Amino acid sequence: MAPDPNGPGTLIGVTPESDLQERLVGSVAELDSRRLQRRFQGVQMSPIGQVGERQPARFGGEVRSQQRSAPGSRPSLRVTIHDGTGSAVAVFTGRSRIFGIEAGRAILFEGVARRERGQLVVFNPAYTLLP
User: For every one of its 131 residues, what pLDDT tens digit does the chain have, with 9 covering 90 and above?
Assistant: First the structure.
């Protein structure tokens, strides 16, 4: 398809709402953000970007990474999630592994979050693994 002479970034025969145009002109970060927002659409949860501090909240996202504590120290597991509106970290103290939590897995957390160094953090939340 040829570029539209009426404006940069548009293609002839492709509507602005088109998935194809979105993929052709969007950045990888924008595409990933939209994909995640669509993935969690309809799930009863708050977007991470709207979670308030020190209030009970239910939020979730896709697991991006896990970090275990160093050998010889107290066991803890840090799980970072992203939902397209922001990211959050869940810290599970006394655990070095939770089966089912792996990169790419969808998960919901319920707990009271706070900000540490600009990052939303929740300690020992209740969690639900999603398909």
Answer: 455 455 555 445 545 556 655 656 667 677 767 776 676 677 788 889 889 899 999 999 999 999 998 888 899 999 999 988 899 999 999 998 999 999 999 999 999 999 999 899 999 999 999 88
Calpha distance 115→77 (Å, rounded): 18
In the chain, CATH 2.40.50.140 sits at 48-130
The whole-model pTM stands at: 0.72
Q: Which CATH class is domain 48-130?
A: mainly beta
70 SS3 class: coil
